[in-house]
Design brief:
By secondary structure, the chain is of the alpha/beta class. The protein has 13 helices and 10 strands. The strands form 2 sheets. It has a 5-stranded parallel β-sheet. Strands 8-7-6-9-10 form a 5-stranded parallel β-sheet, sandwiched between helices. The radius of gyration is 19 Å and the shape is globular.
Length: about 300
């Protein structure tokens, strides 16, 4: 095991919508108690927006999250300040990742500062973790990559021969998706099923034919309709049915899209099954995630 002195010191933004923080069985409580082993190993500092910290205190979670910077309540600008910390160039102030446990029916999750928070995370290459499943897995993978023992309670989700993954990329990101898929082909090949929308699916099958042979690779990915024609909605149904746990969706944050509602629908589906599904949206983070995922798969 690596010595704690050599570990990366993380600063993690943390906020949860009200329905994800009030009850003892809420996503916030499940996250912190469930990830206690990883949190204790990583010893991160959490930058917590107002009411979420109140909930942590009321649920007795401060013995797990011992390093805290408190931000104001959302109504007083706490979420806006968190966006600023994502883009801050000062490593002593900037956050390395954001956990924002989003309730898909909470209107505050579409406030400008909430939308900007995700967009700036993608632009500045920082994980944006909007579901309980994504936050649990990210903490587990980061801790394991630095020498922590595996959390065996998560082992079933790393049996990739029983898992599915969706692979989606906007036009400007399709080449980067192909490079990622080629680099991590052996890992992606372990999944029981791979799904994609439109053109991305066809390109990935061409890659698979190059890697595995024309016959073996031609149906490597099951392609659905293109995003503008409803492919995101088709994949959303599979997410809601808990048939897709991981969604790699490489977004171009600089282009306005006519089918933005379809994109948001797929992410909302993942947030609806918050304890099961997750979305990874940024290229460098996806590369790191796939590397750590391979390490974790190899470990059990």
């Amino acid at each position: 095991m690596l010595n704690h002195i050599t570990q990366k010191k993380y600063r993690i933004g943390l906020i949860a919508n009200r329905s994800h923080q009030d009850a003892q069985g809420s996503a916030l409580v499940k996250l912190i108690r469930g990830a206690q082993q990883a949190i204790s190993f990583l010893e991160p500092e959490f930058v917590v927006v107002g009411r979420t910290l109140d909930a942590m205190v009321s649920h007795g979670l401060m013995d797990i999250c011992t390093q805290i910077e408190r931000f104001p309540y959302g109504r007083d600008g706490g979420l806006m300040k968190l966006v600023s910390r994502v883009v801050d160039s000062d490593p002593a102030r900037a956050v390395d990742a954001v956990i924002y446990l989003i309730d898909p029916v909470d209107p505050s999750s579409i406030f400008p500062e909430a939308v900007a928070l995700k967009r700036q995370c993608v632009i500045h290459k920082k994980p944006f973790l909007a579901t309980l499943a994504s936050a649990r897995e990210w903490l587990e993978l980061e801790a394991h990559s630095q020498g922590a023992p595996c959390d065996i309670s998560l082992n079933p989700s790393f049996h990739l021969q029983h898992e599915s993954i969706a692979l989606i990329a906007h036009d400007a990101m399709k080449q980067k998706m192909l490079l990622l898929a080629e680099k991590h082909f052996s890992l992606l090949d372990q999944f029981a099923h791979r799904y994609a929308t439109g053109t991305t699916g066809g390109l990935l099958n061409q890659l698979a034919q190059k890697m595995k042979g024309e016959e073996a690779g031609k149906n490597w990915v099951k392609p659905y309709l293109s995003g503008p024609l409803g492919g995101d909605a088709q994949l959303a149904e599979l997410v809601l049915d808990r048939d897709i746990r991981r969604i790699l969706f490489l977004e171009d944050p600089h282009v306005a899209r006519q089918h933005e509602a379809d994109i948001q629908l797929l992410e909302r589906a993942a947030r609806t099954v918050t304890d099961f599904s997750q979305v990874i949206s940024e290229v460098d983070g996806a590369d790191h995630w796939l590397t750590c995922l391979q390490q974790r798969v190899n470990a059990h």
